[in-house]
Design brief:
The structure holds 2 protein chains of 2 kinds.
Chain A (H helix, E strand, L loop, with lengths): L1 H9 L7 H23 L4 H12 L2 H12 L1 H19 L12 H24 L12 E10 L9 E8 L6 E8 L5 E9 L4 E9 L2 E10 L7 E5 L5 E6 L10 E8 L5 E3 L10 E2 L5 E4 L7 E7 L5 E7 L6 E5 L8 E4 L2
Parallel strand pairs in A: 1-7, 8-15
Antiparallel strand pairs in A: 1-4, 2-3, 2-5, 5-6, 8-12, 9-10, 9-11, 9-13, 13-14, 15-16
Helix pairs in contact in A: 1-2, 2-3, 2-4, 4-6
Chain B lengths: L14 H10 L3 E2 H11 L8 H13 L3 E7 L5 E7 L1 H26 L6
Antiparallel strand pairs in B: 1-3, 2-3
Helix pairs in contact in B: 1-4
The chains are: A alpha+beta, B alpha+beta.
Chain lengths: 339, 116
């Protein structure tokens, strides 16, 4: 599920255990609801995300609170160790002091951290730079090439980039996009931290080619150049219909994931995906030529006036026509016909 | 718009009671709990997410609520909280204490010094 992958990438520290993964998923559900609420008010996705981030605050602080609440037995054991250490030290032993962290002080620390994070975000909003205050390493360019299987350059491909950073322990995500040159090269200047920890997701799109992505996580060096090889796509047509079979015009679709037959997964984040959004015509049709035959694909679908939702689809052979119903619980996606 | 309005925090010490009372009306996930409190209070009370989730986990640890995962309205996975029998009793205790406090405050606010 694309959103579970997002959670794991958004909270790399919390995916150490199933408990943390559950808590992250719970918070992400709430966060997403806040984003959707603001989109429904007419804000753009990026504005909605930023406002929800500001409202939600640093999740890792109250995830820590929840973790402490759930691990009360560990807290008691730690207190016993601290007491024994203190007694030994008073008795003349060479023991190290531990600071006694009470639940009340942990909550107070978390609230103070949350307040500081809010103030920090207000400063950041004044700056449009891709790097937040606290990231002082010089910025360098992200570059790469997009080729096809015959080693021909793919010109005018859309390259979507998601840059993830963790300034002062908080998560920050910024989207960029560009187009490849006639020689298949792309370059976005001054975006990558040269020393701070960062993650970069790069996805390449061109009609007629199955999209591909790559992800790098770097600690003390900038991300490497990204070279992607695109395979030919199987051109299919999506038809968006309501329960009565009538076409729905004006629906939006964004490819979000594809898992190829060899098991490789390629992802697109919703943030920054506007350049690859497709709109259904009066017949409810959306041509899709960014998946390969046999792919297990996922798309985001937005019906007119409705929330974005995720839909899964298996891509059959070239030329297939796939019906996507307005309600996911009604009928599954049907392969209507093949040429 | 909504972000320009001053957000009123939950009155101190009453978050648990508000959450238990909300869940008395049926199982809800965290977002729905916050939304219910905000709407029913005519937007006067805004539950901070940073307080809500630690509160929910605290209530769960005390056995006053229990949680299970299930599909949401949009067919996504959400964690729903439900009031337990122990939680219902605790809610009665909390409401009684709140009522007592409310009457005490009313008495103070309505007090008129005796005329001599």
């Amino acid at each position: 599920m694309a959103w579970q992958d997002r959670i794991r990438r958004w909270f790399p520290r919390i995916h150490r255990s199933a408990v943390h993964a559950d808590l992250g998923e719970e918070l992400m559900f709430h966060f997403r609801a806040l984003v959707n609420e603001r989109i429904a008010e007419g804000r753009s996705f990026d504005d909605a995300w930023s406002q929800a981030e500001e409202r939600f605050g640093p999740m890792h602080c109250y995830m820590e609170e929840c973790r402490l609440l759930g691990n009360s037995s560990r807290v008691r054991a730690r207190r016993r160790i601290v007491l024994a250490s203190t007694l030994l030290l008073l008795g003349g032993g060479a023991w190290q002091f531990n600071r006694v962290i009470t639940l009340e002080s942990a909550l107070a620390d978390a609230r103070i951290a949350q307040q500081r994070a809010r103030e920090q975000r207000q400063e950041e909003r004044a700056s449009q730079s891709p790097l937040a205050p606290g990231e002082t390493s010089p910025r360098v360019a992200l570059s790469g090439t997009i080729m096809d299987r015959e080693c021909h350059p793919v010109a005018d491909a859309t390259v979507l980039v998601i840059l993830k950073t963790w300034p002062r322990g908080r998560y920050r995500q910024v989207a960029f996009h560009c187009a490849t040159e006639p020689d298949g090269r792309f370059c976005i200047d001054d975006i990558l931290p040269s020393r701070d920890r960062h993650g970069v997701l790069v996805a390449a799109f061109k009609d007629g080619y199955a999209f591909r992505s790559s992800y790098q996580l770097k600690e003390n060096a900038p991300a490497d150049a990204v070279d992607l090889v695109l395979d030919k796509a199987a051109a299919v047509t999506l038809i968006i219909q309501d329960e009565k079979g009538l076409p729905i015009a004006g629906s939006r679709v964004v490819p979000s994931a594809r898992q190829s037959a060899d098991g490789q997964t390629n992802l697109v984040y919703f943030m920054g995906s506007e350049p690859i959004q497709a709109l259904s015509d009066s017949a409810g049709r959306i041509p899709l030529s960014c998946f390969s035959a046999g792919d297990h694909a996922e798309v985001y679908l937005q019906l007119p006036g409705k929330d974005w939702e995720s839909r899964r689809v298996h891509i059959p052979a070239e030329g297939a026509i796939l019906r996507m119903a307005s309600s996911p619980s009604s009928s599954p996606i049907q392969n209507l016909s093949q040429k | 718009m909504g972000d320009d309005k001053p957000r009123n925090a939950v009155p101190r010490g009453s978050l648990d009671m508000l959450v238990l009372r909300t869940l008395q009306m049926g199982p809800r996930h965290g977002y729905a709990i916050a939304k219910h409190i905000h709407v029913v209070s005519d937007a006067l009370i805004q539950v901070e997410e940073g307080s809500l989730y630690p509160a929910l986990h605290r209530l769960e640890r005390r056995g006053w609520v229990e949680a299970e995962w299930g599909p949401s309205e949009a067919n996504r996975r959400a964690k729903y909280y439900r009031l337990t029998a122990k939680g219902k009793k605790q809610l009665q205790v909390e409401m009684a204490a709140w009522d007592k406090m409310r009457r005490a405050i009313e008495n103070i606010m309505n007090h008129r010094p005796a005329e001599t």
